[in-house]
Amino acid sequence: MADEEDRKTMSVDDRPKEEGEKTEISERKPLANRKEKVTVRVVFLKVADIETVKERFHAEAFVQAKWREPTLDGLMDSPQKIEELNWNDYWNPKLTLVNALDEFHETVGRSVLFNAQGEAFVCERKKIKGKFHETLELDRFPFDTQHISLTIASNRPEKEVVLVTDDEDLSRIHLHSFVDQQEWILYKHVAASQGTIHKTEEASSERHASLTFSCRASRRIGFFMWNVFFVMFFICSMTFTTFALSVTLLPNRIQLTLILLLTTMTYKFSVNQYLPKISYLTYLDSYILTAMVAICLICAWHAVVGGFVVHAVGEKEAFWIDKYVLIGFVVVYFGGHLFLSIVIYVVVSKERSQDEKDEQDYLRQVFVSSEKPQQFSVELFK
Which residues contact 92 (CB under 8 A, 6 or more apart)? Predict the structure, then answer.
């Protein structure tokens, strides 16, 4: 901390880019024909409006990138020369946000860092704000945990640059500015993963190095438990009341059962507004469809007992057979709900326990990194 306070600050340029403005960066080759190493760090300043249906979220973030620039070695004591630099004459990794949508703004500033050996590093800082796309994994909806990610890539080919995370100054997230606390639980840890991408707008087959920074958000299930699961449970449970009618009243039994089936189908369509159009079943879909199957089976039984069993064995025997079938349906129905509740509890608890463990590991890493001596002793701003 003391070393950080001893940094020398000369001036700053945080000029926002004008719309349509393009920055011309020289095309010097990587040093000694090898990959340039660029360390990247992201701080999530604000996360808001996680939209499940549109698969996007709003974020404000701080992105910092550092890379070696040997041509600036020896200028630690020459702040005037640093102020006169033209960044267009120096190499730049040309970092971009891959999953940014149209509503995106950024402010860019650069400085030069010097370590104890006098080696120079260019430090580029961006403050970004906008909406970002995120492909959500919804198979466990509404008991899901989502990755909220920013993917950073270089416009230069993979053979020229490699992106790595900053292990000395870790990426992090500010939880106090999280807007959707009523709907989501946001965790503190930020994970990073390397990869490569191919930009679709390019005709060449070149791939580009990328780095994805992700924080995790778990959905709060209270709304869906009270407004979907419990409502569906009670609607489906009402089908057992149809057994109170005599086995000879076939039309009445089927009529009541079909009314409850149509009610369930209507409710299913209203629930779809909370989900994007995906090609697989979520936990919620599976539950509602299973309830509809149960109602259909009860309706089919009413047709069988009223149309065949009564005529085959008589009304009295059919009455007792009907009661045994009712008991069977009730045991399977409530036993199935108990089993489903246990499975969901175990799966969700295991996943969220892992999230909490990752968070504790991350906090330990933050503590360890804060105890390390600062690598850079001097910082000069252009």
Answer: 23, 25, 122, 124
- Residue 22: per-residue pLDDT: 40
Query: What is the β-pairing status of strands 56-68 and 184-197?
Result: unpaired
Q: What is the pTM (predicted TM-score) of this model?
A: 0.77
Calculate ∠ Cα 244-249-255, nearest 5°.
85
Q: Which residues contact 113 (CB under 8 A, 6 or more apart)?
A: 66, 120, 121, 122, 123, 376, 378, 379
Residue whose C-alpha is closest to residue 124's, from 69, 195, 167: 69
Q: How many CB atoms lie within 10 A of CB 30?
A: 15
**pLDDT at site 236:** 92
pLDDT tens-digit readout, 113-159: 888 888 889 999 999 999 999 999 898 899 999 999 999 999 988 88
pLDDT reported for residue 373: 55
Q: Return the closest-CA partner of residue 131 out of 103, 111, 157, 95.
A: 103
**Which tens digits make up the pLDDT trace of 276-299?**
888 888 898 889 999 999 999 999
Question: How many Å apart are CA 2 and CA 372, to the nearest integer?
Answer: 11
pLDDT by residue (tens digit) across 23-82? 343 444 555 557 899 999 999 999 999 998 889 999 999 999 999 988 888 777 777 777
Tell me, rounded to whole angstroms, the distance of Cα 319 from its chain centroid: 54
